[in-house]
Specification:
The complex is a heterodimer of chains A (about 100) and B (about 140). Chain A contains 4 helices and no strands. Chain A has helices spanning about 1-20, 25-45, 50-80, 80-95. In chain A, helix 1 runs antiparallel to helix 4 (about 80-95) and helix 2 (about 25-45) runs antiparallel to helix 3. Chain A starts with a helix and ends with a helix. The radius of gyration of chain B is 19 Å and the shape is flat.
Chain lengths: ~100, ~140
């Protein structure tokens, strides 16, 4: 029974990690639109290319952080959470016995 | 590095300095907490390298996308973002899973560039104030 519970818990951790990585889709779309708009701005004002590029890179990096949060949660769910949850589960079972 | 856009070089340098400084701070915190070992250092190095490389590749992609035809720009950035995210995930998973580095020391440096960007307006304001002071001094001399 404990093995089944641990198996379900590991599966849910993997599922959660996969769902967390969906967060990587949004920033990609946002960055694409931001770059397209910045290119138009450079086209209108070529003399401001350096400033616009700098702001665009920083903006993209900020947008990307959202995806990184998902990545970090995913990695924690794969490498850290199973150990913690297994320990809690086994302690609970031992206490019940 | 020679063919890089000067703006990308400048911004990557800024991010590298912030990531290095915050990495040192994190190592100090681990030392003070008495939890420092080699796995913390290797994890920090792997995470910081992944974060700086990600920012450099982001800059290169953005500059290249600006030179690309309008209909391909958004797609280029989107595919680059996916590739970079997967690359970072692979580096972190390899570091934690194979090299057995400290998980937190590997993952935290990925967020250091964001902290550096958050302080950017303050740094720019200070630089601007410094430039104004120098200008004033030049005029007085």
């Amino acid at each position: 029974m404990v093995e089944l519970a641990v198996g379900i818990m590991l599966g849910l951790c993997g599922l959660g990690a996969g769902i967390a990585l969906i967060a990587g889709i949004g920033p990609g779309i946002g960055e694409g639109q931001a770059v397209a708009a910045a290119c138009e701005a450079i086209g209108r004002q070529p003399e401001a290319k350096s400033d616009v590029t700098s702001t665009m890179i920083m903006g993209c990096a900020i947008a990307e952080t959202t995806g990184l949060y998902g990545l970090i949660i995913g990695i924690l769910l794969i490498f850290v959470a199973p150990g913690i949850f297994s320990g809690i589960l086994k302690d609970t079972v031992m206490a019940l016995k | 590095m020679a063919g890089l856009d000067p703006t990308v070089k400048k911004e990557t340098g800024y991010i590298a300095v912030w990531t290095g400084a915050l990495s040192l701070l994190m190592e100090g915190v681990f030392l003070l907490a008495g939890k420092w070992d080699l796995s913390v250092l290797t994890g920090n190095l792997a995470g910081a390298a992944a974060a700086i490389a990600n920012f450099l590749l982001l800059g290169i992609t953005v500059v290249r996308a600006a030179a690309a035809p309008p209909e391909k720009r958004a797609l280029k950035v989107k595919s680059s973002m996916t590739a970079r995210l997967l690359g970072q995930a692979a580096v972190c998973a390899l570091a934690v899973g194979v090299l057995k580095t400290n998980v937190y020391a590997t993952l935290l440096p990925l967020l250091f560039p964001r902290i550096g960007i958050a302080f950017r307006p303050a740094v720019d304001r200070r630089r601007g104030a410094g430039a104004d002071e120098t200008e004033g001094r030049d005029l007085l001399d």
